[in-house]
Amino acid sequence: MAIKVAEVLNAPVATTIMAKGLISPAHPLYAGVAAGKAGNMVAYEIIRRADVVLAIGNRFSEIGTGRYSLEIHGKLVHVNVDDYDLGKAYEPYIEVHADAKDFLAKLLVALRGGLSVRRRDYVINELRELWSVENRELESYYRDVSGLIKPWEVIRAVREIFNRGVRRYLLAMLVHIGLRAS
Hints:
The chain is an alpha/beta fold.
């Protein structure tokens, strides 16, 4: 439902680490993980530049905000089912004590019923440009790092070994119980 609301508004969607799977990275409105300077630069910039930030169901924890490095300059609308989390870390312009699903359903009905909002048609192009910048910076970083062992190479090697081992183990289990697999 959050994606439907974002599509009606043509608004970028940045998630917390915990909600990372909410939107596909292939979706044109995907803005990455908003964890302050520890998250995606795209999410950080989108939130920093926004005139309104609609934060639904998040706590703005120390880790989730990159030690509170998330910059919110626009009006914050904070929606959470737990009163304790509302306004705890960032001062909301409006705080809404509600279940995320209920809030999104009512917002979607209001938006489809004619609630007037200003659509920003340039958002997708802005996101593409920010992703392009982030990807260039990451490629530059990875290309320019020198040394005998690069962390991402170790992670890739461990992942490959683990995946082969898990596949071999699962195939052996299937054979053991009398099933064939390819």
